[in-house]
From TrEMBL:
It comes from the Bacteria. This is MarR family transcriptional regulator. PANTHER family: TRANSCRIPTIONAL REGULATOR, MARR FAMILY, TRANSCRIPTIONAL REPRESSOR MPRA. Pfam families: MarR. Residues 26-162 form the HTH marR-type domain.
Length: 167
């Protein structure tokens, strides 16, 4: 995968095939979707490689980072789910794995008996700080694009997300 270079771009080849099959009117859309999917694979592989020493997936990292940024290091599970834009069951699974590693703990809500809080532990806090420094250095500092290209990409994806009702 990384370092492997093909003689041609398979996505450009797919566009030519789409066009010759008579689907030229949607070929750019196919290229856009396929390109984003491939970019996701590339970036996720880089992120997960950087997080491997911490035994964290990106979703578990995101939950720890969210808790570390929160005012008291604790949030209701449903609020964490909303902020991360994932289903409660996904957050609950991540919490279970993070609890096993003693990076978070569940607590009853002090005033709402129906609500459970998830709180980052001291070990979770130090782990997420180290993992963040690694991600900043190994991934975020150089995603493989110029600042202008990054801005254009972010603007385009922002528009796609907005049009999809993501926010």
């Amino acid at each position: 995968m990384a370092g492997h270079s093909m003689e041609f771009d398979p996505i450009a080849e797919a566009k030519a095939n789409w066009t010759s099959a008579g689907w030229g009117d949607v070929a750019d859309g196919m290229v856009a979707v396929t390109s984003v999917m491939r970019a996701h694979q590339i970036l996720l592989a880089r992120v997960e490689s950087s997080l491997r020493p911490y035994d964290l997936t990106f979703s578990r990292y995101e939950l720890l980072r969210l808790l570390a940024f929160s005012r008291n290091g604790a949030l209701p599970i449903t609020k964490a789910s909303d902020r991360l834009q994932v289903h409660v069951t996904s957050v609950t699974h991540a919490i279970r794995r993070l609890e096993e590693a003693q990076l978070v703990r569940r607590l009853p809500h002090p005033t709402d008996g129906r609500t459970t809080l998830v709180e980052i532990t001291d070990l979770g806090r130090s782990t997420v700080e180290d993992a963040t420094a690694t991600l900043n250095r190994e991934v975020f500092a150089d995603v493989g694009m110029t600042s202008d290209q990054i801005s254009g990409l972010v603007d385009a994806i922002h528009e796609l997300r907005h049009n999809a009702g993501d926010f």
